[in-house]
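Whether sequence alone determines local backbone shape is best considered at the level of individual chains. Part of our work consisted of pairing the sequence of a single chain with a tokenised description of its backbone. This step matters because it turns folding into a mapping between discrete strings. For completeness, the protein is quoted in full, as a sequence line and a line of structure tokens:

_____
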Amino acid sequence: MYPRLVAEDLEKGFSTGSGVRLEVLRGLSLTVEAGEVVAIIGDSGTGKSTLLHLLGALDRPDNGHVCYDGQDIFEQSDDALSRWRNTSVGFVFQFHHLLPEFSALENVAMPALIAGQGRAQAQARAETLLEQLGLGMRLGHRPAELSGGEQQRVAVARALMNRPALVLADEPSGSLDTKTAEALHEELLKLSRTHDQAFIIATHNPTLSGLCDRVLLLEDGQLWAQPKPQK
């Protein structure tokens, strides 16, 4: 059996406006097993979001490899990568990115519809996920009619819609109050255990990182193992 995800010797840099090259990731490597929850911590600007974008094939590394279930994802065509992202990876961002003209149910069902699933089946699963996340009474509400915490839970349900084996979360509770954030943290961990999904979570929140199986510090372009914060 292969690990769920293996990143080897990732390098990524960007050119600044002054023409100076900024090297963000410098030979970074990471292995994540199925069902494992890994927290990535580090100061703002160290490259946490950049790393998640590479692991989810939203961007390509300058050098290095990312293997999912033993297969190098960047050996695929762009079309194949798009299909892989939609079916195998769930993304949870800090600022929801919900479609304002659609209801909570429609937002969550969207990835399945894009993948070609029938509307009735997609909506049935979306309803189940929203009910699991405590939003069974909010199915028909549009994002503007939901609180920030409710919108984020809709975003989590959408990320899980196609039963992805890998979930990438970028500051998933960064915009939430403490009570709402803690409830979301527990839901994420419960979902990972229930469905054997691998979670990689970029966060500044010590409570969330303390719940994860491992904590890794992104510093100087590489990852360093850290002791877990005390709960």
